[in-house]
Recover the amino acids of this structure.
């Protein structure tokens, strides 16, 4: 299938498919002499996997890493995708039922207890999402989270203050070039602080920086300290990691 046919079949843009090709996420089976991208059945199966992972909140960089692992099992991934989506559907069904009751309650048609008003809200993590993180997640992030949970209240407060101090410092120099001495000094502090909590290799540190812009949740949280900070940190972290390897 040609790129336009795939785009129409799936419901995504041609530009998106071009982007997936450019970043090495989904490389067409063939490119004709005229420059047309040709997608095979295997390409379409891979695209389906990519979209399942994307629906579940995985950033593109992580999806690429996961599906290219020698140990990646497509069938196993499909089974876990199904479990996660069913869990998500159950929660949505519960919340829809609560909304319908609340509409009737607001019209005075029924009574609702306080408990009924919050049925369907569940802020605990999806158990199958935890299973996915275990199989495909970032080990360094998991280690960091474990160390944070083990900290005392005062220790957590101290680390939060250190985190905020570095964010504020980096936000104040985000107008500088990511390779500048000031930026690299600040990013070095960030690298050292993270490694007090986890075990971040240079590659993992660089990958974490990429997540800052690939995952909108990271971007939103970091950019609270200054618009564009996530992108600045991503670039500076990549430069730091590459430089330290030399």
């Amino acid at each position: 299938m040609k790129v336009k046919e795939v785009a129409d079949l799936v419901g995504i843009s041609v530009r998106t498919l071009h982007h997936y090709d450019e970043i090495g996420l989904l490389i067409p089976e063939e490119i004709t002499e005229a420059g047309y991208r040709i997608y095979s059945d295997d390409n379409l199966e891979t695209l389906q996997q990519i979209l399942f992972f994307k629906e579940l909140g995985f950033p593109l960089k992580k999806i690429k890493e996961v599906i290219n692992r020698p140990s990646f099992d497509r069938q196993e991934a499909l089974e876990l995708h199904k479990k996660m989506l069913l869990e998500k559907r159950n929660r949505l069904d519960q919340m829809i039922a609560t909304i319908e009751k609340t509409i009737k309650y607001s019209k005075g048609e029924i009574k609702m207890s306080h408990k009924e008003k919050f049925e369907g809200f569940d802020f605990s993590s999806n158990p199958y999402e935890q299973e996915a993180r275990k199989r495909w997640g970032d080990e360094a992030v998991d280690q960091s989270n474990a160390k944070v949970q083990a900290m005392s209240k005062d220790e957590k407060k101290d680390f939060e203050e250190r985190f905020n101090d570095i964010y504020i410092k980096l936000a104040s120099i985000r107008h500088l070039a990511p390779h500048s001495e000031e930026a690299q000094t600040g990013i070095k502090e960030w690298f050292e602080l993270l490694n007090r909590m986890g075990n971040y290799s240079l590659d993992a540190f660089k990958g974490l920086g990429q997540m800052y812009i690939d995952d909108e949740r990271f971007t939103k949280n970091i950019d609270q300290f200054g618009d564009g900070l996530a992108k600045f940190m991503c670039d500076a972290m990549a430069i730091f990691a590459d430089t330290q390897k030399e």
The mean pLDDT is 83. The longest strand covers residues 30-31. The two ends are 43 Å apart (CA to CA). The chain has three domains: 3-56, 74-136, 139-245.
